[in-house]
Amino acid sequence: EEIDKVKPEYYIRSFEFENKLMPSTWIIIRIDGCHFHRFSELHEFEKPNDERALNLMNSCAMAVLEEFQDMVFSYGVSDEYSFVLRKNSYLYQRRASEIVSSVVSFFTSMYVMRWKDFFQEKVLKYPPSFDGRAVCYPSSEILRDYLSWRQVDCHINNQYNSCFWKLVTSGKNKREAQHEMKGAQLQKKLEELGIEYDKILAMFRHGSSIFWDKEDSIVEHHQNGNLSDSHMKKIMLENCDIIGPKFWLEHSSILDEKQ
Ligand code: ATP
Ligand code: ATP
Ligand code: MG
Ligand code: MG
Ligand code: MG
Ligand code: MG
User: Fold this and answer.
1) Could you tell me if residue 99 is inside a domain?
2) Is 77 a member of any domain?
3) Structural domains in the chain (count)
4) Which atom of ligand 1 has the smallest separation from the CA of 37?
């Protein structure tokens, strides 16, 4: 059949491209604030880490996990958050653009709505935006490598920023501070500047992990003698190491492929 003879609906639809994410793979949606270097300066974020801004990000990420039931884990630092969709999720038939756009717009709306809860009288000067992307990871080992990569990034950036802002607050201008940090060994620099890195807030050092924690199943004894088994799920936020095996052994249900 010639293309102009088929139903217009099919003809028009034929221009849409296939963007389905590979089946049976973990889907990561990573969102990142657009031009937050500028946004954070304009809104006078405390440097290097503004606690209110991070708490706002965390609050929005929690809302995402509550809204999108297939999200099993998320990890956030600075102006970014990574959301993990379970392997067998069929959200939007796994169409990438629908999944990414709905997560990004939901997160952004939350950020604007909840701004005042964290920044009180400080007005939001312009509408912030976030970009987003989806990536599939075929195994939980590779997914963990991805998350470790983000946490290593958090760690290195935070060490660098701690030194940089220490130099700035002790009188150097930004250019001088940048010059002094060039090629510096971070561990040595921290000692040199007298920064007790371990005393810095865990949220700044480790970023934030949000996940559903399966509580032990509560067996209810009803008066009629029946037993009912209800799995209560609770949302959890931890600022801990997710590179080593400990966290994943203690929360083995998160990456349980059968869920
Ligand atoms: P792009 O649009 O390419 O992402 P960007 O300016 O957002 O550019 P990023 O690499 O994403 O650049 O870095 C985010 C920047 O936002 C950080 O460098 C930091 O200056 C600032 N920022 C984000 N969150 C905080 C926070 N909680 N406290 C202080 N500064 C923050
Ligand atoms: P989905 O999430 O799949 O898009 P939906 O509920 O948004 O579901 P749509 O097919 O997009 O469904 O239709 C949007 C619906 O929103 C319409 O059916 C209508 O009920 C409502 N709606 C949108 N705009 C208006 C409007 N200006 N006035 C009244 N109703 C509206
Ligand atoms: Mg970006
Ligand atoms: Mg950014
Ligand atoms: Mg960023
Ligand atoms: Mg729709």
Assistant:
1) yes
2) yes
3) 1
4) 6
Residue 23, Cβ density class (10 Å: 0-12 exposed, 13-18 middle, ≥19 buried): exposed
The domain that holds 129 is classified in CATH as: 3.30.70.3000
% helix, strand, coil for the chain, step of 5: 45, 20, 35
pLDDT at 2: 64
Domain encompassing residue 76: 3-144+208-250
CB 24 within 8 A of CB 78: no
Residues with CB under 6 A from ligand 1: 32-37, 40, 45, 47, 49-50, 53-54, 78-79
Query: What is the DSSP pairing of strand 26-33 with strand 208-214?
Result: unpaired
pLDDT in tens, 20-54: 999 999 999 999 999 999 999 999 999 999 999 99
Q: Cα–Cα distance between 79 and 57 in angstroms, integer?
A: 7
Predicted confidence at residue 248, as pLDDT, reads 97
Atom of ligand 1 at shortest range from CA of 47: 29
CA atoms of 239 and 204, how far apart (whole Å): 8
CA of 72 to the centre of ligand 4 (A): 24
Q: What ligand is nearest to the CA atom of residue 53?
A: 1
Residue nearest to atom 20 of ligand 1 (CA): 37
Atom of ligand 1 nearest to the CA of 54: 27
Rg for the chain (alpha carbons), in Å?
22
Q: Each residue of 70-114: pLDDT tens digit?
A: 999 999 999 999 999 999 999 999 999 999 999 999 999 999 999
Q: Is residue 73 part of a domain?
A: yes
14 lies in a domain? Answer: yes
Terminal Cα-to-Cα distance of the chain (whole angstroms): 45
Calpha distance 59→64 (Å, rounded): 9
